[in-house]
Amino acid sequence: MEDTMLKRWLYVLLLVCLLITVRVDGYSVGITYVENAVAKGAVCLDGSPPAYHFDKGFGAGINNWLLHIEGGAWCNNVTTCLAKKDTRLGSSTKMDKQVTFSGILHNQAKYNPDFYNWNRIKVRYCDGSSFTGDVEAVNPATNLHFRGARVWRAVIDDLLEKGMKNAQSAFLTGCSAGGLTVILHCDGFSALLPTGTKVKCLSDAGYFVNAKDLTGAEHMQDIYNDVVTTHGSAKNLPASCTSRSSPSSCFFPQYVAPNIRTPLFILNAAYDSYQIKNILAPGVADPHGVWHNCKLDITECSATQLDTMQGYRLGFLNALKELESSSSVGLFINSCYSHCQSSMQETWLRDDSPVLDNITISKAVGDWYYDRSPFKKIDCPYPCDKSCHNRIFE
After folding, report:
1. Quick one: signal sequence residues (predicted)?
2. Which residues are catalytic?
């Protein structure tokens, strides 16, 4: 009898702990569909309307707007786009109706001191091209719509009508493929806002570098070339890059970011787990799975593999060189094995969050945005940083 009662109390205690964790780490926000975008052909891969989640600002933040662009990689041909079409990354009909806002999207000052009372929007990603595609024709056999650039504009237009046209401050942020979206659309976003609006951009885990894989092949360059071809992206990439480089090269931030006029903050792990898994050691370059355990958990990497990853880090830092001298650029480059650190509470701002020079990501970004102090710091090599939240994949 006592054992049964003890088990019940432990169960109740566990539930209470879970509820407290959920409440601290985030809260749910409902979905909004941009239904009128369909008539303009601004649709997801499957032809469904674009979508976002919107939590309205309040108090002093009522005229400030923060957009966070969801990630989700890319599709680079009909086969991979068909694979995405019937998922949340290709159809708004497959998206969760509620998503958790945490980190940079949190609505409590304790967890997000600089942006908690802004209008905060999470833009859903359903086009597979970092919002660059625009192909008019639709093959009836596949019903694939390559309309990312139209989706982007439809979402922005909808938000402008809902009050963003009166923005005093605006912050375009995003993670992974959404972080790349930020870099590709940063100046364009700024141009759509009123003169006098304070506009800045934050790319989180979106600084994908043009590096060779383990075999020496340019695997990522080939993927980006196919993305641009499949989605008809060339005309929607920054002209400051395409005027002197190939469109597929202009998917790489290192060739675009130095010419961005709007202030830009790069938040990235030097050992970005997505880049290690998909650029340095993709499956095609590791047919025998020698890197399998290392890619799942950096503590499982051999000395030789760590040496290779140290070389990748140096290449990554070299791709940032042109940004280091810019007074408008912020950098938080830690030596963690992770991917996306702004939208998760544990890495954005918590007692045990990652730090550089004892400064959290939240404070570094906030100080930079509000011009309280610049922030441009690059971590020492792995494994020196003990504040990292290194990802372990199953």
Report:
1. 1-26
2. 176, 272, 339
